[in-house]
Amino acid sequence: MTTLRLLSPLTGVVRPVSAVPDPVFAEGMVGPGIAIAPQHVQHQTVLAPADGVVGALHPHAFALELGEGRTILVHLGIDTVGLAGQGFTLHVDGGQTVRAGDRLVTWSPVDVSAAGLATICPVVALQADPDLLSLLVADGDTVQAGEPLLDWA
């Protein structure tokens, strides 16, 4: 398989996935990855981390099918499914082909925080071998949306 470079879907501070306050993500049950603590802003745009096809799509989360059996999951905040889409605007449809850097979702970390929910965003390589992921940004560093985040061998 070819090495795939994944871009950061949003701007924020890089954190280990173990920092996510949800055991499904923190313990790597769905796969390895990284988390991003987003900027505390009213409106933030979430970009496609790579070329792919939008698979599962919800206002608060999406899976992007990347080919070669690889899928990346981006989850905006924790327990945000309970917001029933409030504060999230989708810009794509399920099954749509997207390019790296395309706008997928706009959301409000401020509103999610005001609802008492964690805003941290897991970015997970579904069912991947952790040894195949290489982090390109150090824990605690700020990454801008669209900048290189991970390489997936």
TrEMBL record:
Subcellular location, record wording: Cytoplasm
Primary localization: cytoplasm
GO molecular function, one term: kinase activity
Domain PTS EIIA type-1 residues, every copy: 22-127
Pfam families referenced in this protein's UniProt entry, alphabetically: PTS_EIIA_1
Keywords noted in UniProt: Kinase, Phosphotransferase system, Sugar transport, Transferase, Transport
Gene Ontology biological process terms from the UniProt entry: phosphoenolpyruvate-dependent sugar phosphotransferase system
GO cellular component, one term: cytoplasm
Cross-referenced NCBIfam families: PTBA (TIGR00830)
Name this polypeptide is given: PTS glucose transporter subunit IIA
Higher taxonomy: Bacteria, Bacillati, Actinomycetota, Actinomycetes, Micrococcales
